[in-house]
Specification:
alpha/beta; Rossmann fold; 3 domains; two-stranded antiparallel sheet; 41% helix; flat; binds calcium ion
Length: 464
């Protein structure tokens, strides 16, 4: 059978399947029948945990799924078949995926959507966007829930995040589409940004047959080098004498547009090809007598050049990570500040704490554990003081209780998701330093007196 004939036959089958699937009763039966779906040849072991028709506009996300929206992002969705699947490409794998298929009006195509950050969730909003455009759509949590303790707990979890989950989801989604519509998708696409951009490149390299087309944006690739790239950017924009206040970003952006917008034939505020733009920020250097807000100081000019150029090795000049494109200026912000100083507390990454607690400014104060540090500092100061007033046995007792208490505080701060263990150790180090240094540097006069209420013990008051 020639290629053309087979295509025509397939089109006829699909046309028939579409007519049948468009009938609501049949669509519901076909959807619920997908519980019997089994792995395709070569696909990972597969278990369907849910196969259910969802009425138009009836879907609600099972948990927080993105920034608050004025209206439900799912309110205008058409009726669809929702299939939830667990895939196990490796013995310790636990890859969750969902496939959403419009009950009618299917465009004949599949769109697998990518993840952001460390993934760990099904991308319900991305599924909704694809579904609303007529696609059958699929998303995976990439094999863990979170980010949480199990994110990279096993090699299987790591490999699933790295590349297996998207591939296996694509394979299973095609199987589900075939089962629901009676025809495989005419074309399958992948669409993702950030981690999704990395997934896009990985899919193209490792599984070139999975997708007929791939949209990959802002790929978060080569993580170790990317970290240096971000620090390089942070140092240029925020910590050097050439730090660039955000008020000056429009100045730079306007100059870029003036130099390059029309290169693509349309002065529309968009650079079709930023790589063709060779704008140099030196043209914005302050001239004598110029208002500082209207120009860049020489160190600021250098900072902007560094940001465009990207990280390179200080000694060899070897490129480490690409810079930011010309035209991106309005989006510049010193993001790594939050990495370097405002370290998020562990509970931010889980889904157990309420969203309000995870997004509170206090949630970015993991570094370091002040509780643990305070406990240890107090213990050491009290021990020192008791020694000085000639109560060595009590001093040792206080030290023992204080150390146990500090350890307990440290462990509970970690258990409560308030800190990472490393933050607690830094807290101890700071606390010990304070506890030893403050009495030593300032001298300590101590007066011991019984507490006001009988049997309450001994109070210590000191003056530094
Ligand atoms: Ca343009």
């Amino acid at each position: 059978m020639s290629h053309h004939t087979s295509r025509r036959v397939r089109a006829l089958i699909m046309g028939a399947a579409l007519v049948v699937a468009a009938h609501p009763a049949h669509a519901a039966a076909a959807c619920e029948g997908l519980t019997a779906l089994t792995a395709s040849p070569g696909g990972a072991p597969l278990q369907v945990t849910l196969a259910k028709s969802v009425a138009a506009g009836a879907f609600t996300a099972p948990g927080p799924d993105g920034p608050p929206a004025a209206a439900s992002p799912y309110g205008s969705l058409p009726a669809f078949c929702r299939v939830a699947i667990t895939l196990r490409p490796g013995p310790k794998s636990d890859v969750k995926a969902e496939v959403w298929m419009p009950a009618s009006g299917w465009n004949g195509k599949l769109q697998v959507v990518g993840n952001g950050g460390f993934a760990g969730t099904i991308g319900y909003r991305a599924l909704a966007t694809a579904l609303a455009s007529g696609f059958a759509a699929a998303s995976t949590d990439t094999g863990h829930t979170g980010p949480a303790a199990n994110t990279f707990a096993t090699e299987d979890a790591t490999l699933d995040f790295a590349y297996r989950a998207i591939h296996e989801t694509a394979v299973a989604a095609k199987q589900a589409v075939d089962g629901f519509y009676g025809a495989a998708p005419k074309f399958s696409y992948f669409n993702g940004c950030s981690t999704g951009g990395r997934q896009a490149l990985t899919a193209a390299q490792r599984y070139p047959d999975d997708f007929a087309g791939i949209v990959g944006g802002a790929p978060a690739i080569y993580t170790t080098k990317q970290a240096f790239g971000q620090l390089w950017f942070y140092q240029a924009i925020a910590v050097s004498e050439g730090a660039i206040p955000k008020e000056k970003l429009p100045l730079i952006h306007d100059a870029v547009l003036a130099a390059c917008d029309a290169l693509d034939g349309a002065a529309d505020g968009v650079l079709e090809n930023p790589l063709a733009c060779k704008f140099d920020p030196g043209v914005l250097a302050c001239k004598p007598g110029a208002a500082p807000a209207s120009c860049l100081t020489p160190p600021q000019v250098e900072s902007v050049r560094k940001i465009y150029a990207g990280a390179s090795h200080a000694a060899t000049g070897e490129k480490i990570f690409p810079g930011l494109e010309r035209g991106s200026e309005l989006g510049w912000s010193p993001v790594p500040v939050s990495y370097a100083v405002g370290r998020p507390r562990p509970r931010v990454y889980g889904d157990e704490a309420p969203l309000s607690e995870r997004t509170d400014p206090n949630a970015a104060r993991s570094f370091f554990s002040g509780h643990a540090g305070n406990c240890l500092a107090t213990t050491i100061v009290a021990t020192t003081a008791l020694h000085r007033i000639g109560r060595p046995r009590l001093a040792w007792a206080v030290l023992a209780v204080g150390l146990a208490g500090s350890a307990l505080v440290g462990v509970s701060r970690v258990a409560a998701g308030g800190h990472f263990p490393s933050d607690v150790f830094v807290g101890y180090a700071v606390g010990a330093g304070v506890g030893i240094a403050v009495p030593a540097l300032h001298g300590l006069s101590v007066r011991a007196s019984p507490l006001a209420f009988p049997g309450a013990g001994l109070s210590l008051s000191g003056r530094f």
